[in-house]
Design goal:
about 170 residues; mainly alpha; two-stranded antiparallel sheet; 6 helices
Length: about 170
C-alpha cells in the first residue's frame, strides 16, 4: 500500500501531518480545562482549609499556611500545564497572562514563607516538649516546599514571558 490506508488518515509511516495537526488541535480545550481544574481545585482546597478566616491570629496563620503547603504542587502543575499549553498552541497573550500569574504566585509564596517563619518563631515557646520535634520537622518541611515552589514559579513565569516574546519576534520575520 502506498499513500492512504482504508480510513484515509494514516500513511505507511503513521498519521499524516494534517490528521495529526487536527487531532492535536482537538486537545486544546481539554488541556486548558485540565490546567484550570488543577488551579481552581487547589485554590478552593486552600480556601476551605482557611475558612473561617482569622489572619489576626498567629496560630491560625501558622496552621493554615503550613497545611496549605500540601496544595502547592497541584497549583504549580496547573500553572505549568497552562503555560505549556499556551506555548504549544502559540497563544502568546494567554502565555503572557500565565507568566504574570506565575510570577505573582511565586512572590505571594515568598511572602507567605516569610510570615510562616515569623509565626513559627512566635509560637515555638508554646509548643509542648513532646511535640517540639514534630513542630520543627513540619515547619522545615513546609518552608522548603514554599521556597522550592516559589523559585519554580518565578522561573516558570520568567521563561513563559520569554517564550511569549519569541512568538512576537518570530511573527515579524
Amino acid at each position: 500500500m502506498t499513500g492512504k490506508s482504508k480510513e484515509g488518515s494514516r500513511s505507511e509511516g503513521g498519521w499524516n501531518t494534517q490528521a495529526r495537526s487536527q487531532a492535536v488541535h482537538h486537545l486544546r480545550v481539554p488541556a486548558y480545562l485540565a490546567a484550570a481544574l488543577f488551579i481552581i481545585t487547589s485554590l478552593a482546597d486552600v480556601l476551605t482549609l482557611a475558612w473561617p478566616l482569622n489572619p489576626g491570629a498567629v496560630a491560625w496563620r501558622f496552621g493554615t499556611v503550613g497545611a496549605a503547603s500540601n496544595y502547592v504542587l497541584t497549583l504549580y502543575f496547573g500553572i505549568a500545564l497552562l503555560c505549556w499549553t499556551a506555548a504549544f498552541f502559540g497563544h502568546a497573550g494567554t502565555l503572557r497572562i500565565s507568566a504574570v500569574f506565575s510570577l505573582i504566585t511565586g512572590l505571594v509564596l515568598l511572602l507567605l514563607l516569610g510570615d510562616f517563619g515569623m509565626s513559627a518563631l512566635q509560637l515555638r515557646g508554646g509548643v509542648p516538649e513532646a511535640e517540639v520535634a514534630a513542630y520543627r520537622i513540619g515547619t522545615v518541611k513546609a518552608s522548603i516546599k514554599y521556597l522550592m515552589f516559589a523559585v519554580a514559579l518565578l522561573l516558570t513565569g520568567i521563561f513563559a514571558w520569554r517564550a511569549a516574546s519569541t512568538f512576537r519576534r518570530s511573527s515579524y520575520r
